[in-house]
Write a structure and sequence with these properties.
This protein has a domain of 70 residues. The protein has 4 helices and no strands. Helix 2 runs antiparallel to helix 3. The chain is flat and about 50 Å long.
Length: 114
């Protein structure tokens, strides 16, 4: 059995972040958070595919990243960011109710116990 790649990947990530921070190339923490949230939304869509779950979660993660950036750049006030997020979440939840949107798949290795 081959060992997992988690530990080496964490070392690479932490070393890269440390290097970027020590050379002053790392952007502000709110910019990094915004990029991570938006990137997670896109990555989740690529990994899990399009289904009822990702129809809601992926756009909300991307919106959360944009909202963090817009709020910290003082482009929008917190009440604007939250109210727009509520409207977006409600719209996505309504769209996800459609029978045309596929359900989340069980994934590999999972079987029904029937």
């Amino acid at each position: 059995m081959r060992p997992g790649a988690t530990f080496p990947l964490i070392l690479i990530l932490l070393g890269s972040l440390w290097f970027l921070h020590s050379t002053a190339l790392l952007p502000d923490s709110h910019t990094v958070l915004a990029l991570l949230l938006a990137g997670t939304g896109f990555a989740l869509l690529l990994i899990d595919g399009f289904n009822k779950s990702t129809l809601v979660s992926c756009p909300l993660l991307v919106y959360a990243g944009a909202a963090v950036w817009l709020y910290h750049e003082t482009i929008l006030r917190l009440s604007h960011v939250l109210s727009l997020g509520m409207v977006l979440a409600g719209l996505l939840l309504l769209i996800a109710r459609s029978h045309h949107i596929p359900e989340k798949s069980q994934g590999l290795g999972r079987h029904d116990a029937s």
